[in-house]
């Protein structure tokens, strides 16, 4: 129970928010009569809103970000100390935490060598796109500049990143988009595009990429940009056989491979630091953001291998030869200072292992729910990154109307558990419940999340 003064203050906060804040991804009409949600405090896996109501957060800050949980004083202290010593200097110079974090990160990414700091996942992806285009100009007279992206994948909210976006509902009304981005089919077996299963399906889905390359002309295609496990497009784990074939195709046509680890990166998928490391992939670019510092400070990185880096320092006499790019807040020191502690916590607390064990447990529990509720058509996931796709008919796999999927989320919310759902993503497919609890999750936490989902499904679907 909040005391009177605090209650008064929080009412003012709610009023200020209602009057002036434009919330992300939100229709504001309901706030004319109702209240926006204000999250006031967080500890571990739990957050409290303006009414003091406690929630178990099964989505790590709403968008798979707070990987080590809330209230980590150790990260806050490291950031504070660093801010007092040096808060900022442009990224054309180095910084102590920037150098230290790059070394730590690269030691966990065999084959990669350079870290370019920026401040959001979208921006990290834009950096990779710019590098690909500059390489095309430096090496191929501008011809090999096209970037392939996949149906259902998402790479960010800027116009450039949306030009590379495979979620049409996000893009509606925001065009025209940039040219030079070409779509390839998704690899989701549950929504099969070919009458095959298992490894045959995976290889066929990868062959579909080759077909696009051949249609465009391999000498025009510079890079392929993919999420290792697609997030907002439906939590899509790749089918067997997919990644080895994708890698083979990239090598065959000298196409740079850009892996977007904005969601999967830094432990989310368990066992390995990055999603791509489960599949033996050797990327040229790896972009990351959300979990890098668990949201304690803004930090994103575009990481490259030495082969890419070398192409930007070939000719000292050419004033245009190097990567002519800057990100103002890429020079903030709070990000790498927080990221250093974040990675140390993951290691010291064994969170990669915990994520695998708890992820497997949660997958089993969700599959048990699938036996009970016929509305769950499919359960997918890797580590603590899971989805349950809701269908009105298991045979036709017709997605449930999005209002019903949202009703499940609302029921969980009312019961004090925050879960997610694919939202304004693939038209007609805003029907996958999303779970990404912090890497510190315990069995009890997962039992609560699954129990809330169970009750919510019963209430909405009977
Ligand atoms: C896979 C993926 N890439 C990129 C982004 C964009 O990141 P940001 O919102 O930090 O720009 C997101 C955000 O959800 C994402 O899910």
Automatic annotation (TrEMBL):
InterPro entries: Aminotrans_3, Aminotrans_3_PPA_site, PyrdxlP-dep_Trfase, PyrdxlP-dep_Trfase_major, PyrdxlP-dep_Trfase_small. Its cofactor is pyridoxal 5'-phosphate. The keyword Transferase applies. GO terms for molecular function: pyridoxal phosphate binding; transaminase activity. Signal peptide: none annotated. It comes from the Bacteria. Pfam families: Aminotran_3. Keywords: Aminotransferase, Pyridoxal phosphate, Pyruvate, Transferase. Belongs to the class-III pyridoxal-phosphate-dependent aminotransferase family. This is Taurine-pyruvate aminotransferase. It comes from Roseovarius pacificus.
């Amino acid at each position: 129970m909040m005391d009177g003064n605090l209650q008064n203050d929080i009412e003012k906060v709610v009023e200020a928010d209602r009057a002036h804040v434009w919330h992300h991804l939100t229709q504001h009409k309901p706030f004319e009569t109702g209240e926006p949600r204000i999250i006031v405090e967080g500890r571990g896996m739990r957050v409290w809103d303006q009414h003091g109501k406690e929630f178990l957060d099964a989505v790590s800050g709403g968008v798979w970000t707070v990987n080590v949980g809330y209230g980590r004083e150790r990260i806050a202290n490291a950031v504070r100390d660093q801010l007092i010593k040096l808060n900022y200097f442009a990224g054309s110079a180095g910084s102590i935490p920037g150098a230290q974090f790059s070394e730590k990160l690269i030691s966990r990414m065999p084959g990669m060598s350079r870290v370019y700091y920026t401040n959001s996942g979208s921006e990290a992806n834009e950096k990779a796109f710019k590098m690909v285009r500059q390489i095309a100009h430096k090496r191929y007279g501008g011809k090999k500049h096209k970037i392939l992206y996949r149906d259902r994948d998402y790479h960010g909210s800027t116009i450039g990143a949306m030009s590379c976006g495979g979620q049409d509902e996000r893009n509606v009304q925001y065009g025209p988009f940039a040219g030079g981005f070409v779509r390839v089919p998704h690899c989701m077996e549950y929504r099969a595009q070919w009458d095959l299963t298992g490894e045959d399906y995976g290889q066929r889905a990868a062959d579909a990429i080759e077909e696009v390359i051949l249609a465009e002309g391999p000498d025009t295609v510079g890079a392929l940009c993919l999420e290792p496990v697609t997030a907002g497009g439906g939590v899509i784990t790749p089918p067997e056989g997919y990644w080895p074939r994708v890698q083979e195709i990239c090598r065959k046509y000298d196409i740079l491979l850009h892996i977007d680890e904005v969601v999967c990166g830094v432990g989310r998928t368990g066992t390995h630091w990055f999603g791509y490391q489960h599949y033996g992939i050797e990327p040229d670019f790896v972009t990351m953001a959300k979990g890098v510092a668990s949201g304690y400070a803004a930090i994103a990185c575009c990481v490259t291998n030495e082969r890419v880096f070398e192409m930007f320092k070939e000719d000292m006499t050419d004033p245009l030869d190097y990567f002519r790019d800057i990100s103002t807040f890429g020079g903030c020191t709070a990000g790498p200072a927080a990221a250093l502690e974040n990675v140390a916590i993951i290691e010291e607390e064994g969170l990669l292992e915990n994520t695998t064990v708890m992820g497997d447990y949660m997958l089993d529990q969700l599959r048990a729910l699938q036996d009970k509720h016929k509305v769950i058509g499919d359960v997918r996931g890797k580590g603590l990154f899971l989805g349950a796709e809701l269908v009105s008919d298991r045979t036709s796999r017709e997605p449930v109307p999005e209002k019903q999927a949202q009703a499940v989320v609302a029921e969980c919310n009312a019961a004090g558990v925050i879960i997610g759902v694919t939202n304004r993503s693939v038209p007609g497919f805003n029907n996958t419940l999303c779970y990404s609890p912090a890497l510190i999750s315990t069995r009890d936490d997962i039992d609560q999340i699954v129990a809330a989902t169970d009750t919510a499904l019963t209430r909405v679907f009977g």
